[in-house]
Amino acid sequence: MDWLPLLSTLAGAAIGIGSTLIADRNRWKHEDVKDSVRLRLDVYTQYTTTVKVLGETLRALAGREHPSDGERAHALREAFRESGIGIASERMWLTAPEPVVKASNSVFHCLRRICDSYIEGTAVSSPEDRARWEARGKAAATMRKLMREDLGVGPLTERHSPLLDDYTDPAAP
């Protein structure tokens, strides 16, 4: 009996099965990477959107008339709590790489300081308020830069939000 044809058939089958398994594994790894990037994009989008909406909400609430300082404080605390920033932050802590987590946490604490300052009576657009918003803007720019790097997207050449000195309030005289 000639074993050579049988051995070559078995070797061919082993090579075919092995290459199929390797191709499937590579395809699975590629899909896993794509899914991971999609998840982080979703988390980053949720976080940056929540940060933007919360900032606008805090500024609007602080600029409104309230029956009392206590009511103003309650409205600001409630807006912070209900904004979804806590959930968005936890998702960030669970899925993002450490540099992005640190940067997003910095933005979170900037917003917390802004909220607390409004609760303490800081006026909207006062020098103290402008400094806190500028710090938040810089922290957010760093965060977005790190997010874009993590997602493999190139850097931006322009700032997301204008400097507060460049902002012209249409309601201002």
| Protein structure class | mainly alpha
Overall outline: rod-shaped
Distance between the termini: 102 Å
Strand count, sense and barrel status of the largest sheet are: none
Mean pLDDT: 88
Query: Using DSSP, what is the number of strands?
Result: 0
User: Percent range for helical residues?
Assistant: over 70%
Radius of gyration: 26 Å
Order of helices and strands: HHHHH
Number of domains as seen in the coordinates: 1
Separate helix tally = 5
Query: What proportion strand?
Result: under 5%
Low-pLDDT runs of 5+ residues are 165-173
Summarize the structure.
By secondary structure, the chain is mainly alpha-helical. It has five helices and no strands.
What does this structure look like?
This protein is mainly α and 173 residues long. It has one domain. It contains 5 helices and no strands. Helix 1 packs antiparallel against helix 3 (85-95), helix 1 (4-63) packs parallel to helix 4 and helix 3 runs antiparallel to helix 4 (98-119). It is rod-shaped. The model is unreliable at 165-173 (pLDDT under 50).
